[in-house]
Design a protein that fits this description.
alpha/beta; Rossmann fold; seven-stranded parallel β-sheet
């Protein structure tokens, strides 16, 4: 089996981490043998992969200056991986060193959308290794210009959209709506996000408040934790009975199925999981026209796209959909068709598998083969 050494900083809470945690077991089913290493933190997705039987290891770096643990990470070259797969700046730098010493191709994935702010030192680190990375995967074509500016050559960039398995709600829609104190004719606008500044949950609160003033059946619910949680709770408290903040939830599919409109107010994005889950569950989307969102959502067909930071435009879109239940159904059905055609987990994994096979075959001077792949080195892969 082709052995893939996967390096990242953490597999904590977040769309990027969840996407990777979905991908790695799928690669195993395609004949790859992943070994997952986190550098800074483990995280719930790390533990989930352990439970699924994937090989895992934790380095425990405290900072980029933690030379002892960095040396431990560098020694992973002794495992002789067939390919090194990285995500995050720290992993790209260490992964470059490991791949070079092991004689393995290096692939990295960038989930951050166009406009993602990068600290100057992070930008310098990426620019230092970008020309030496064999392949970079973007989740949206909107990232191309940014990746080129960082030093990734156009010929080495591959766009692979995120993919998810069909979400599986576990409770009836009516039961969830009753728990949220919603009447049958209330129109629920749902925001699911890790509450960081770029998610602009404040815009969502204001947009729902304005929409409620014009269409009183509109209600808003926010699901997610994160550094902005307390601030968002405070803002929602200024609109009692209009917006509720639930905090971190493990029943997101139930919430999406209970919603009438799924929303995202981010100032920048890659290709967010929430949007794909909404499409899979046949829900129309109102979101900002940033990053990879317009790749997935067609304005007027599967949802509405509005300028980032524009609470008034967002409110107008909510009111328009709140007043047209038939239009919501039509948009939701169209979104589900697009999901099944373009954003399934199987489709994403097959495309990653094809890229990985090609990189290994190019290293070995062989023609890549579809299906299961045979490779490996004499040293034992950790158990």
């Amino acid at each position: 089996m082709t052995r893939v050494l996967f390096l990242c900083s953490t597999l904590g809470v977040g769309g990027r981490e969840r996407q990777l945690a979905l991908l790695l077991p799928e690669l195993r089913s395609l004949g790859f043998d992943p070994y997952v290493v986190t550098l800074r933190h483990r995280g719930p997705h790390f533990e989930a992969l352990e439970r699924q039987g994937l090989k895992t290891s934790f380095v425990g770096m405290r900072s980029r200056g933690d030379l002892r643990r960095m040396s431990r990470a560098y020694k992973l070259w002794r495992l002789r991986p067939d390919i090194v797969f990285t995500s995050s700046v720290d992993a790209q730098v260490i992964g470059h060193l490991v791949a070079r010493r092991a004689g393995a191709p290096h692939i990295t994935v960038e989930h951050g959308g166009a406009g993602l702010p990068r600290a100057p030192h992070r930008r310098l680190l990426v620019r230092a290794v970008a020309p030496r990375i064999d392949r970079v995967v973007a989740v949206s074509a909107t990232q191309l210009e940014e990746l080129q500016s960082l030093g990734f050559g156009t010929e080495r960039i591959t766009v692979i959209p995120n993919g998810i398995p069909p979400p599986s709600p576990t409770r009836p829609r009516e039961a969830v709506r009753a728990e949220l104190d919603l009447d049958n004719d209330d129109v629920l606008a749902l925001l699911v996000a890790t509450l960081r500044p770029e998610k602009r949950a404040d815009v969502f609160v204001e947009a729902v408040r304005r929409a409620h003033g014009r269409a009183p059946r509109v209600r808003g619910v926010i699901a997610g934790g994160g550094p902005e949680l307390a601030r968002v709770q405070s803002l929602a408290a200024e609109a009692p009975g209009v917006v509720r903040v639930l905090g971190e939830r493990s029943d997101v599919p139930d919430l999406i199925a209970a919603a009438d409109i799924v929303c995202l107010t981010s100032s920048f994005e890659g290709l967010p999981m929430t949007i794909l889950e909404a499409m899979a569950l046949s829900r129309p989307v109102v979101a900002t026209n940033v990053g990879g969102i317009p790749d997935a959502i067609t304005d007027g067909r599967t949802g509405r796209l509005v300028p980032p930071g524009d609470a008034e435009a967002f409110a107008e879109a909510l009111v328009a959909l709140a007043e047209e239940p038939a239009l919501r159904r039509i948009m939701g059905d169209a979104a589900n068709v697009d999901y099944r055609e373009r954003y399934t987990l199987e489709s994403m994994a097959e495309r990653y598998g094809s890229v990985l096979r090609t990189l290994v075959a190019n290293r070995d001077g062989r023609t890549p083969r579809r299906g299961r792949v045979q490779s490996g080195s004499p040293l034992s892969w950790p158990r």
